[in-house]
Amino acid sequence: VTLSTGQPPPLPPAHDGPPRLIVSRTRPPAVVDAIAARIGGVLVPMGSAGAKAMAVVRGEAEAYVHSGGQYEWDSAAPVAVALACGLHATRIDGSQLIYNNADPYLPDLLICRPELAAVILEVIAAA
Asked: What is the pTM of this model?
C-alpha cells in the first residue's frame, strides 16, 4: 500500500469498538490515560511516528497522541497524508502544526478522526 497526498485513501468508517489510541511503546504521554477514560478508549503501543500516523489513516486506530517531542522530518509527510485524508492534525494544544522552522524540534502532535478532536483537546487542556 502506498499512502500519499496525490490520491489519499478515503477516511475509513468509524470503528464499532472502543476508540484505539496509538501511543509510543516507550514514552506514552501522561495524559493518554485520561483521554482513554473519557472516551472509553484503549491504548495501543506502537513504534515509528509514520506507522502510528498511518494506522489512523488506515482506520486501524482513531487517534495518535504524542508529547515526547520529535523532529519535523518525523511527522511532516505523515501529517500531510493525514490532512489530505480528512483527519484532524494539530499540536496537542490545538494550534496549527508549522513546519520549516529554524528549530526543527516539534514538541507534540495529535492526529485523530475529526469527530474525536474536540473531546481529546478538551481532556488535554484540563490535564
From this structure: 0.94
